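Problem 12. The chain below contains 460 residues. Write out its predicted structure in token notation.
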Amino acid sequence: MLIRFVVSNFLSFDEETEFNMLAGNFKQHKQHVYKVGKLKVLRAAAIYGANAAGKSNLIKAIDTLKNIVEEGGVFSFLEQKKFKLNPANKEKPIQFEMEFSIKNKIYAYGISINKGKIKEEWLYESGITKEDKLIFERTTDKKGKINIRLGKRQLSAKQKLLIELLEENLIKEDETVIGKFELLKIREVTMCRNWIADSLLVVYPQDKPSNFFINRFIVSEGGKEGIENIVKILDLGIATLKTELIEGQDYFGKDYEQDYFEEIMVGVGEDRSIIYHEENGLLHLVKIDDKLYVEKVVSLHKGTDGNVEFNLEEESLGTQRMVDFIPLFFLMLVKDMVVLIDEIDQSLHVNLLYRFLEESLKNEDAQGQLIFTTHESNLLDLNILRPDEIWFAEKDRSKGSTQFYSLSEFKPRYDLDIRKGYLQGRYGAIPFLADLENLNWSSLATKEEESQNETNQSNA
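Solution.
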């Protein structure tokens, strides 16, 4: 469960900026609130703001930390992602910190990066009402020496030696301590690393994950029935979805480079399956009796003589986008997953999106969280979202940096028309539009016409 995320000196974030999923004292939609120890944590967050306000940058920041943890190191290009509107920031580090819960225990993992090197890294078990418990802390002194301090715990002789080796030369300046979880064999380190790497699922507007997500979901226990229920609820015009196996040579074509095809076969190897990236998304390739097959998702529509098969690429962009969301819907129901969707409204009719959110959030047995950015003002409705689940991103006009704040700060009445208030600028986070009369469209058009006439006369 994601509780809090803090970022500084990254993309449009200058000074330390916080986003959190902490619940306020609102009575509506009580099923949207999880109890995590002594904390109350929300199931959803909708983030609004003008174009270039920094909404997507929050998703990118969380995804960047996830990738650092997953890869076990930092990337040299991060230096180019620093906040550029303040010259002093060139010498300051980028910093990320994430607070999250696993089995009702709360942890905080953070990292400080400068010029491609990790300056600090830490992992704590948060005490909330008592002192935090150190799991590990990594610092770098002025001479570049790495120091690793562990919390009070019984270490084996092998673990003590390993820490000494890490400090001396086993860990590089761009490698994370949390990335050495397999060597350290410290339970909390492994658990926290796996949660960040596996439980944060990020979907960008350009992503086309349906070919992978759906096909694995269809073959799962209860998956087919679940899909039939959701396509019926959302009225997508689809009877159901299913997977079919297509022989690799038929799918890729007879003219496909034989050498590369054989490389794919080798890649599948003994695991019998592999994820393959192509233009239309992620494919699941499987090997059966030494033959390569593509496991492809197709939709079934009711025709006059029974069901008719369609490729997903033949469906509308809105239907394809909603199909991508179907497995995410179930993941949030059955697992402690944090699904982050950038521009959730892309290609989707507002009524369909409204219904999707309504169905996703009303289930009292859900275990996951949904965080999304959007411009769709019709979702600003307290019938589906709580005031503390609605966030706004706005640029500081003097500094150019992104700030976040929640609708709950305005203490809105439950019967208030939030959408109308937002569009009127009551809560900020909308584009700053110039006076259109001052743009002198008529004058500019006249000048353009005169210029064109002069050109035509010269050419005559």
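Discussion. Residues 80 and 277 are 27 Å apart (CA to CA). Students who got a different answer should revisit the alignment rule from Section 12.3.
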